[in-house]
Amino acid sequence: MKTLVLTSSFKRAFKRLVRRQPELQERIQERLALLVVDPFDPLLQTHKLKGKLSGAWACSVEYDCRIVFNFVENPESGEEEILLIDVGTHDEVY
């Protein structure tokens, strides 16, 4: 099980998205719980990104909602963590 680390940009994007579409909050939280347990669960459709986001990963919340993240190592514990970068529609995050 991995630890989630939320960036300030992710928190802002999450608040903005939930303000516009409150019904997504529960769905995003479910996907984040699944991401912690198994980042490559088929439901998440996890994929590596190219271009300006090269090296980052994304997973699907629903048809037009994505979570962008990176796998990082905690310098203190050496454990792998998931650094949440952005959340939003396909066009917003890419």
From TrEMBL:
This is Plasmid stabilization system. SUPFAM superfamilies: RelE-like (SSF143011). It comes from the Bacteria. The keyword Cytoplasm does not apply. NCBIfam families: RelE_StbE (TIGR02385). It holds the Pfam family YafQ_toxin. InterPro entries: RelE/ParE_toxin, RelE/ParE_toxin_dom_sf, Toxin_YafQ-like. The keyword Lipid metabolism does not apply. Keywords: Toxin-antitoxin system.
